[in-house]
Amino acid sequence: MESLFERFPGAKRALFSSFHIGGCQACAYDSKSTLKKVCEQHNISLNDAITCILESHENDKKMLISPKELNSQLSSKSPPILLDTRTREEFEATKIEGAQLLTEDRQKELFTQKENPPDIVLIDHLGQTILDNCAWFHGHGLTNTVGLEGGIDRYAIEIDSTIQRYRLELEE
């Protein structure tokens, strides 16, 4: 399952939403297991699981924007709203010019704006949580929302080397 999730980052979300696999203790599985074994344990067709993962992956790709595409949009006449989903500390340390920190108040403001929803690009650190955030925005009617593929880190590597890169060290 680990290698599957590396190749298809949204697979875990897709399997849970379609088959209720992996979201709680009752439907958990060993991450070292294979997809075939997990499907057998949960009485699910392997072909159905594969189809679900591939379709989800295609949908996920539609919710992402590359750093190059974002850079092009930022120089257009009507650039998208950049919302940074990182912590306040990360945002204050380094950011893409023009980005806004996504606060609870800003989110509420956007979620209540039903007419002419704006184009929004969500930013995180490495692109690891961005699909879940995009799905949250889509679920609240903001379907013009995409996420920056690879996060601010990839943007700094490919587009703007003046953006300071960093690594988070989590406490054990």
Describe it for me?
With 172 residues, the chain is α/β, with parallel strands linked by helices. α2 packs across α4 (46-62). It starts with a helix and ends in a 14-residue tail after the last helix. The model has no long low-confidence stretch (mean pLDDT 91). The protein has 9 helices and 5 strands, in the order ααααβαβαβαβαβα. Strands 1-5-4-2-3 form a 5-stranded parallel β-sheet. α8 (130-139) links the parallel β4 (120-123) and β5. The protein has helices at residues 2-7, 11-19, 35-41, 46-62, 67-74, 88-93, 104-112, 130-139, 151-158, and strands at residues 64-65, 81-84, 100-101, 120-123, 145-148. The protein is globular. It has 2 domains: 2-61, no CATH class; 64-158, Rhodanese-like domain (Oxidized Rhodanese, domain 1), CATH 3.40.250.10. Helix content is 47%, strand content 9%.
Topology:
Elements lengths: L1 H6 L3 H9 L15 H7 L4 H17 L1 E2 L1 H8 L6 E4 L3 H6 L6 E2 L2 H9 L7 E4 L6 H10 L5 E4 L2 H8 L14
Helix pairs in contact: 2-4
